[in-house]
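Q: What does the assembly look like in three dimensions?
Context provided by user:
Components: two
Sequences:
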Amino acid sequence: MKCTRCRETAAVSLPSHTAGFCSQCFLVFIERQIQKAIKDKKLFTMEDRIIIALSGGKDSLALAWQLKKMGYDIAGLHIDLAIPQSSPIARDHVERFCRDRDIRLFVLEMDKLGMPIPEIRKKIKRPVCSVCGKIKRHYFNKFAVDNGFTVLATGHNLDDEVARLLSNVFRWDAAYLGDQGPLLPAENGFVRKVKPLYRLSEFETANFCFIAEIDYGFSPCPYSKGASFTFYKTLLDELEQRQPGSKLSFYEGFLKRGQKAFAQMDIKEGRTLSPCKKCGFPTSADTCGVCRIRLMLENG
Amino acid sequence: MQIIIQPENKIENASRVKTVMGLLKKLGLKDTQALVIRDNQLLTPDQRIYQDDRIIVRLVASRG
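A: Here is the predicted structure of the complete assembly.
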């Protein structure tokens, strides 16, 4: 297979784009996809102060690498979840990556904040993934707001977004569908949230990390086994194999023709936010979900 | 040929496989579910592989 741009031997084949690229042209392709996402969806500008949520996995490190290369004002934020089997490995990858690339890094330690995930897991009856996600979103947002960052960027890729969309569609969850997209504007105590990798698949970010020599963490979270999103991703891979390009088309179609309708429906149904009476951050209940978890831990 | 499947670093042996596509099929993978690497070079599905190759198959799906 030859590179679509320069006719050298291709290193990456992309059926969804009916194209193949050599290593150097693939880096150009990735940069253009991210530029297109930033421009088309007006995600941020050179004037923004961007904090990137860094998990130590391929997507968030790829995002930081590319935004740094493009000259944006970025810093990294890592949350150490205190999971013995995976957290030290993830943190080590993030710290080495930021040191080597001269990226300013902040680390929040859940152990020191009284919210270690293994302890929470022992106390709750449901899967810990949704609680863990809630805690991370809370602290990422709080850190960004408290420290004057104007944008919170995450490494969610096309596969993450399409799996989430399918899951929300299966439940016809208007509130989640109305909120889904690569840009959530700043409002009601929430910093602007962006997903600049939404046009790129996991396959593309994995190839990108290999070519850019980004050493990312493979070690999966020991608690994520059987997560429903993994199953949705498998289903969607089958669809993509038969109809290359269908993931991006499904997601872009939703953004163009579906998302606004669900957002309107959510406004009509009247979900209002007010400050949490414990921490002051926005919530639809009296006390936010994170403070309720903290109370549960304190009460044994 | 020796196949190292990451992230688990599980080692398997494959015989009578002539292309990357054939190898992925044998492992039950689609061509966008893994990177296939030989001598630190990425391989596309159409490329030939040989019996004395040492191949890394790196699964791409993140799991939490």
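Follow-up: Chain A touches chain B at residues 1, 10-13, 15-16, 20, 23, 57-59, 129, 159, 201-203, 205-207, 210-211, 218-221, 223-225, 227, 230, 233, 237-238, 240-241 (CB under 8 Å).
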